[in-house]
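#dry-run=false #mode=assembly
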Amino acid sequence: MARIGEFELLVLLAILRQADSPYANRIREDLESNAGRKVTRGALYRTLDRLAGKGLIEWELEPSGTPERGGHPMRRLALTEEGVESVRASHEVLMRFFDGLDPVFR
Amino acid sequence: MVERPPRLAEWVLTRALGDEDAARSILGDVAEDFAAMLRRRGVGVARLWYWKEALALTGSALLGRVRGRPLTRVTTEGGSTVREAVSTIGMLQDARYALRATRKDLVFFAFATAIIGLGVGASTAVFSVMSPLLLQPLPFEQPDRLAVIALSDAEGAGLSAVTSRTSNVRDFREMSRSFESIGGFNAFFEQGTYNLAGVGEPERLLGVDVTQNFLDVLGVRPLLGRNFVAEEGVWDGRPAILLTHGFWARRFASDAGVVGTALTINGVPTEVVGVLPPTFDFSSVFTPASRVDFLRPWPIADETDNWGNTTTMIGRLTAGATIESAQAELESIVQSLQEANPNRWGLAAAVSGLQEKIARPFRSAMLLLAAAAAGVMLIVCVNLSNMLLARSPRRRREMAVRRTLGATRGRLIRQLLIESTFVSMSGALVGVAVAAGAIRFVTRTTGLEIPMLSSVSIDAWALTFTVGVAVLAGFAVGIIPALQVAEGGEAEALSSASRGSSGGVRARRLREGLVVAEVATACVLLVFGGLVMKSFQRLMDVDLGFEPAGAQAWRLNPTRSFEALADIAGYYEGIVAAVEALPGVRGVGLTDALPLGRNRTWGTRVVGKTYGEDDPTESIFPHIVDYRYTAAMGIDLVEGRTFDSGDTGDNTPVILVNETAAERMFGGDALGKAIRMWFGEAEVVGVVEDVKHESLDVSGTNEVYFLITQAWSFNSLDMIVRSDLPPATLRASVSAAIRGEDALMPVDETWTLDSTVAESVSPRRFTLQLLGAFAASALLLAALGIYGVLSYSVTERVPEIGIRMALGESASEVMRHVVGKTLTLATVGVVIGSGAALAGTRLISSLLYGVEPTDPPTFVTMVAVLLVVSALSGLIPSIRAARIDSAGALRSAT
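#status=ok
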């Protein structure tokens, strides 16, 4: 199974969180406001491309939703089964490592 | 109309991303965020933002492609031929190679990037600021048909100096065939006081009185709601206002529901009939550096006509009419009106194009700055060429090696082009940042009285052009090594390069010529900068006629209305007495027109003086003041007496006149004479010195001071407080004293007279600062150019210098030789530059005050500065030359 970094994990989670409108701009907003990260466009698109390359996400093209997009289509992002699997695996690893460390963080 | 992202930026981004599905979705994402930015921050910021995003993404995409980490997967399906694949690989290799080359020569790369950035940034910023004012049409319908109908065509300070009586508007509308429609606005709208109460915090608003048809004349349609209707446009008509877009967004959070509701303004329910579009920024076009919250109707009626020359008249020419034909027609109309009523005053017309009228006071300054920016850009290109030339022998050797290893000529050229482009593009990125920063600074600087600043944004064409120039300069010179080698000179290149020899006499001549050009350009910029600086100093040394230091002003807006003049006078007297009693206050005075602020004209006649039939009325600049004003302002009495507390409404009206009026209206003997006003005859009791009222560089208008207690013709008053206390302390105690008299009076409108003076010279200061920055950059770049060329020539002549020293030449002689060479180059440059500066004096003379454009001290000083800096920049290479170890040098030469 593909190994993923922290930022990749956040992006995958953000896609899952934005189930209603899993588009790049919403993902970026979520990361900026809820993960407290400044995410440049280039970094996000490159990560999306890499995740697609690893087979963790896939996307479908949708026609432009609003006139503001100037007729350009939108990418509806979704995790592949393998993507969901990798998030689950990361979660397990994190839980295992956090386990028993509560006193440190209290 | 939906505002689209800047087309050029979108194009660049499209090229960088490609047209894969994913790439197109990225374009859409950016466009979507652009729309959000547009709503929040307006067109200017949004366009800047888009440029920033587009360039960052472009960089990211290109860099990603080179490193094999693309933004969007390049799909390989669809017949890409082998050739294309190979070419792409080669291109990538070249790009990677160029990256590596720049990393190896980081100093060169950083320096080239910095100077290109400086040149591109400066030129783009200046061009972007002047573009909406001078080059783009005004944001109105068919703006070339709009004209200002002024009273006279004299050079004046802005549009308020061109006002007419409303009876002229009425009659011109009726009689003229050259104009489709004529409207206007009350140029003295800032005297109006509008207190908004009822919704949220009370606030003092600024409203402009415009004729009912004003928006139709301009061809502006409200964004929401409707224009004023006839029953709102008459005297005492139904109260109505149109909100400006900025005020609507700020105060009502862009709530469309506000249209049709009534706001309580000065206690009167006033219907909001509409909202103006964001593209129509009244103050930016007509009254820069002021704020406008709403428009209200300005009736063309007898009542407003009695207020004198109030209206800035704007007309729309009929199709086919020209400024000249309209002028001729109005002249004959004026003549017939005057014949019909010989007593009518203020009847005249001077037609000029609206844009021309707005831009004229700024044209010479803008053109000078554009020329200066072009000069800096020229020096940048010259410097870049010089640096590339100096690198060229080394590159020639590298090219020769690659050529012998089998690289084609095209491949070499391509690699060099990629390198040049790479340097130019990174310079352009820096330039965009510089320009964006500069533009942000300029548009955010409040109080800069330059029209159309609010529509300034990075001008795509200027950016493209300047980047293009830098790229071309890079190409032209950067390609030389490849061409030289390509002509089959591999062997020669390899052998001569191994000895570290120069590119020959021709190359050296070329480099020296370039340095001379740099010095000459820098010389012109320095001389112009020096002249503008000196002129600014002269202006700041002008005798203002009043003492701005230590004086602070308050705008007093009574919150209640008064029945009689005595009531108002008593009300203000109470406030002044309270403030006067404060500790640390040395003087207090009241006026309705502070210097360097409002501008207006009244007509009058001197009693007992005979006037011919055609003589116009005497025009005066009236000031309505209290008896303490001249003392509080520090205006000196020349003869007679000043006002005193005994001059009240019960006595004969008395006035003070300035020296100019005493001379011009009364022939030097003013005391005891009288002028005729609507309230009766007013006697001159004193003559005071002239005050700079309009601007620092305009003097000699007739000024007359009336007393508040005798002439009821003011809307709001300003209070001057003179004190040695720090402004903040003074502000607190004066505010408390005012509130003690009138608890509801807004007290936040206060400013120092020093700031008023500073604001009045803001366009000049702006020119000075920019020109100074350009001149300093030019000097720096020229010094670097000299340094570069000399240290290069020292390096290439190490063997020669070694031989000379071995033959007995001393170290100091070698130094003298190198510095002498520097000064020769600099002197030639200075001679050419001074000649060019002398030839260019026409460009600058209209901008100068109190300084001749050929001012010898300025020329001499600047030339001396340039020569000293040149000598200094030649010093380091000369010391290096003097330290050459002759034995080592000789060894390396063999």
